[in-house]
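Field reference: sequence -> structure
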Amino acid sequence: MRTRKETEFYIKADAIMNKVAWHRSWFGRIFYPSKLRQYMITLRKLEFYATPPYKKSPFWYFAYLFYKIRYDRLGYKLGFEIPLYTLGYGCRIPHHGSIVLNGATKIGNYCCLMNLTTFADGDFKEVGNNVYIATNVVVAHRVRISDGCKISACSFVNKSFDTKNMLIGGVPAKTLKACEPWTEECKEDVELCENLRIKMGLEYLI
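Structure field:
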């Protein structure tokens, strides 16, 4: 369940972390809006309206149906299958292309998902904060990826990696070397999101 204020923060944090991918001139925003932006906003709003009160309020129910239909259509166009409540705040998705996550996946805050990412099977998968997942990565079985890790392109991850800030890669994946979190490249954006979170009184969100 997510409150209206939490939903507003999630949308703003996503916008800050995706400002390059979502950027459009005023002309582009009117005639060629970013479908990535539309999808992420729709996802967050659907997460809000999918909470139990829609069973009691007709308006809530119709709002839920509107965002559910929009979510399905945009997901089909972009190639995304991202279940509700899977992504933490400040998630960056810079490109169109297939992203398939199973319903037992939990991805932390400030993560980056590149295209052709697949979280296979129905086993629980937990991804920490500040994790970068490169193109064409497959994650299978019950695994946990620690905070600050980077998964290199074309990797197959089938076991857990419990050490923070490591570069992971290969088929099957193994630890390659220590690395800095990808968010070091955009520290100002992360700080802006964190300041916004505190300003909105959402210190309990982690």
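Note: The mean pLDDT is 92.
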